Amino acid sequence: GMHSKITETTQLSRCKPSPDYYGTASSSSSSSISITDSSVWSLHCMPSLTICTLTVALCISGGFQQGYIASVLNQPYIYIESFINDTIHERIGIHPSEHALNFIWSSLNIMFPIASIAGQFLAAWACRRFGRKGTALLSCLLYLPGTILSSLAEPARSFELLFLGRILWSLANGINSVNATVWIVECAPPSIRGGMAAMQEFSMAVGSLLCQSLGLPFSTPSLWPLIFLPNVPLVLIAALLFLLVPDSPTSILEREGDMDKARHSLARYYGVSANSPLLDDELSTNKKKSKIEQKTDNEGISWIFNPFGLEDDKMRVIQQAAWLGVMVKIAYVFTGARCLRSYSTFVLHYLSHFTLDAASLGSWIISAIRIPSTLIPVFFVDRIGRRPLIIFSLITTLFSLAILITSIMVGNEMKYASFVSFAVLLLVNAAGLGSVSRFYAAELVPRSLLLEAVSILAGLEAFTKIVVEFAFFPVANVIGVYSLLIFVVPSFVFLIAIWALCPETSGRNVYQVLNDIANRKNLKVSFTP
């Protein structure tokens, strides 16, 4: 009635019309907005309390956990190695050889990426079976024993608990990394979707820095088990926040088929009334699957890996969209930002010839500056767009690597230039490609394929990351500065490919993005809701 119209007008008065990709806006009076077709408008409103609550919960249970678990063994590693050594001696009466101890330590570290990959492949099944909300709560239930068992390893005199705890912790993080990407893409209004998704990179930086800071007082023979425990109350807070928000509307339709419930869920995330026309465009993507989406469901996800035999032009477009997503993810891996961040102290000490203390301090300073850097895409990715941030990151990466290599080759006279270029390399990718790569792939494929595609492509990215990170360290020890060429050539190739092939996704629905890709391929096909 009149009340709902007034409420709607009030809500829409806070929204800024954006006719760019949706056609021509109908005329409106100077004091109100008249909407005749919801597809004409993008939602440029203040985020609702529900979407903010979801974002915080996903950050704590996703990016923060990834940053924390990746750093948790770094600073107290001497005392953990000593604990493993002493435990084995207590059991069998002899100390393990240095080679055996290094193998155990390496195995403990590699549990994180391996279990994460397993979690990423399990994520699609878990999200279908338990819904997005249920999967998030399941991940929290796995986080708790993972952290607690790791902390109990020393008093129990069982280093195996470190392995078991790290496996559970990493498995949960792998599951939730996929769930977080899919859930936020399904629920955030298009005009703020990028900013909400980019918060994952910010939370990862916070988790990493917090862990490094806690590592200073906890890196002692008696206190190192305590470094795992601060994660427990944070996981409980995340679980409580998940209980306060509804499941994703896509998940509701998949599991219950209740359009009315899905509409009310999306209305809470958008911060509008359930009868708002702003919901129609988003919900239309979930009402029914197109023939092409039904076909891919029947064939399974294997169609992504089939380079030949795709006779249907629409399938070819969707396949290319999926591979463009993984290309952006792998492009971030080959900038070297993620790998070199893991070895930052080694790069500054061994390659740039800073003292060990100066290298450690420099590494901490970069980690601290990285936090405000990751906020740049949160506020600007939806205004600037995905493509400009990606391309700027890659161009700056190439210049930074060139200066870094030159500075290291010149020697001590330019070691501060090497520090600055190294910092720029890490920070510009945190503000650009590193953040965008987390969700860009999810904006390229239809919703019915989103879960499986994100799960598979995240696993491929993680596998590539393992190969690069484990190859760099021994290669750098052998050939020194020339090991950085591993990142220069691929970054240049990816820059050209992304410039030529990747569409802009900001403010656009997936069908418009797919039509853009089809036009680039000169295919006479059209995708519609």
UniProtKB/TrEMBL annotation:
<feature type="transmembrane region" description="Helical">
    <location>
        <begin position="479"/>
        <end position="502"/>
    </location>
</feature>
<dbReference type="Pfam" id="PF00083">
    <property type="entry name" value="Sugar_tr"/>
</dbReference>
<feature type="transmembrane region" description="Helical">
    <location>
        <begin position="223"/>
        <end position="245"/>
    </location>
</feature>
<feature type="transmembrane region" description="Helical">
    <location>
        <begin position="449"/>
        <end position="473"/>
    </location>
</feature>
<dbReference type="GO" id="GO:0016020">
    <property type="term" value="C:membrane"/>
</dbReference>
<dbReference type="InterPro" id="IPR005828">
    <property type="entry name" value="MFS_sugar_transport-like"/>
</dbReference>
<feature type="domain" description="Major facilitator superfamily (MFS) profile">
    <location>
        <begin position="55"/>
        <end position="506"/>
    </location>
</feature>
<dbReference type="InterPro" id="IPR045263">
    <property type="entry name" value="GLUT"/>
</dbReference>
<keyword id="KW-0472">Membrane</keyword>
<feature type="transmembrane region" description="Helical">
    <location>
        <begin position="321"/>
        <end position="343"/>
    </location>
</feature>
<keyword id="KW-0812">Transmembrane</keyword>
<keyword id="KW-1133">Transmembrane helix</keyword>
<dbReference type="GO" id="GO:0015149">
    <property type="term" value="F:hexose transmembrane transporter activity"/>
</dbReference>
<feature type="transmembrane region" description="Helical">
    <location>
        <begin position="134"/>
        <end position="153"/>
    </location>
</feature>
<feature type="transmembrane region" description="Helical">
    <location>
        <begin position="103"/>
        <end position="127"/>
    </location>
</feature>
<dbReference type="InterPro" id="IPR020846">
    <property type="entry name" value="MFS_dom"/>
</dbReference>
<protein>
    <recommendedName>
        <fullName>Major facilitator superfamily (MFS) profile domain-containing protein</fullName>
    </recommendedName>
</protein>
<dbReference type="InterPro" id="IPR036259">
    <property type="entry name" value="MFS_trans_sf"/>
</dbReference>
<feature type="transmembrane region" description="Helical">
    <location>
        <begin position="363"/>
        <end position="382"/>
    </location>
</feature>
<feature type="transmembrane region" description="Helical">
    <location>
        <begin position="389"/>
        <end position="410"/>
    </location>
</feature>
<feature type="transmembrane region" description="Helical">
    <location>
        <begin position="416"/>
        <end position="437"/>
    </location>
</feature>
